[in-house]
Amino acid sequence: MRGEATVLHADLDAFYASVEQRDAPELRGRPVIVGGGVVLAASYEAKARGVRTAMGGRQARDLCPEAVIVPPRMDAYSAASRDVFAIFRDTTPLVEGLSIDEAFLEVGGLRKIAGSPEDVAVRLRQRVRSEVGLAISVGVARTKFLAKVASAVSKPDGLLVVEPDREQEFLLPLPVERMWGVGAVTAEKLHGLGIRTVGELAELEAATAERLLGKATGAHVHALARLRDPRPVDTTRRRGSIGSQRALGRQPRTMAELDVILTQIVDRLARRLRDGDRVCRTVVLRLRFGDFAKATRSHTVGSATDRTAVLLSVAQGLLAAAAPDIAERGITLIGVSLAQLGRVADLQPELPIDWAEGAQLDTVLDAVRDRFGATSVARAVHLGRDPGWSAPVLPEQE
């Protein structure tokens, strides 16, 4: 026997839309779309009509005219995520978070006190439903890859256990799109070669897969197709970057408007850095223009920092440099990532020359927002602005 199926992949179903339906009973059973200009999430009722994440709002409304469109509420989603992750960590200390709405859990050591992995998964789903009010799908398998595929296949609101002796039976008939790491471009390339199932991919030699798909991608997906995935659940996994982005729709935006949105994004990210005792060295600005072309601009500072004023100044400089392109082509999305993350404890002490007042201000603002909520205090640049501009920014899907 090649080990036991002890890895759980738990993934909340249509997370943003499900939170909206949970909090507004009149939305339950109805098609719900989160986000207007671009679809950020869709309920299963809307997905049944063909609505998909990242689809344009007009196309989504054409497909599902009866859909209820709601603005995103990131504070509500973050609170729900914290509640769910508290259940994860109460289930097992071995939790590897992947995003705001999914995680791996290793439960192999719980058999004597909590039963089989399937028993643990059943209780986990019941607790998330009863305590948080959300549906969650869980895959159980010997490896992280298979557990993730199993949870996807079990959706919505399902549980699927892939025992070691039926791994090939489960995986090989699936379309290559189910593979972790196979996106639209790789899938199209494989289809062009007549390879449509995982089994057909597994039949290739490793060298052939690497030649067709590139060394890294080919080696990765070929190993998974042959059921090789030695990665353990990693409870020490830390992100190499954090980021947020905001879809802007198709309407024209002035640079003053973009500066307001950029300030909101950087404010939130800098606070996340400080909450996690992290610092960063590189600020990355991500733009999507009106013609849907994308651009990335970055700047690395000399010393790692978590100061809002420093990070905002860098981001504003990057945005100013992109102004001519924005004026000519329009803009539909703006995002910021903070990269080269490090720990505050690892920093060399700085001379308290320029940043003391900014540090004190950041500390005070963080404390006020912790006590009275994220919208309790705002920068002067936000005053008198359209409330729609102050909607929470959306985290990057990593």
TrEMBL record:
The UniProt entry's GO biological process terms, in alphabetical order, are:
DNA repair; DNA-templated DNA replication; error-prone translesion synthesis; SOS response
Where in the chain is the site Substrate discrimination?
Answer: Y16
Q: Where mainly found?
A: cytoplasm
| The organism's place on the tree of life at top rank | Bacteria
Keyword Transit peptide listed? The answer is: no
Q: Which reaction does it catalyse?
A: DNA(n) + a 2'-deoxyribonucleoside 5'-triphosphate = DNA(n+1) + diphosphate
The record places the active site at: E102
Enzyme Commission number(s) of this protein:
2.7.7.7
Q: Which family does it belong to?
A: Belongs to the DNA polymerase type-Y family.
How this chain assembles, per its entry, is:
Monomer.
* Stated name of the protein: DNA polymerase IV
Gene from which this protein is expressed:
dinB
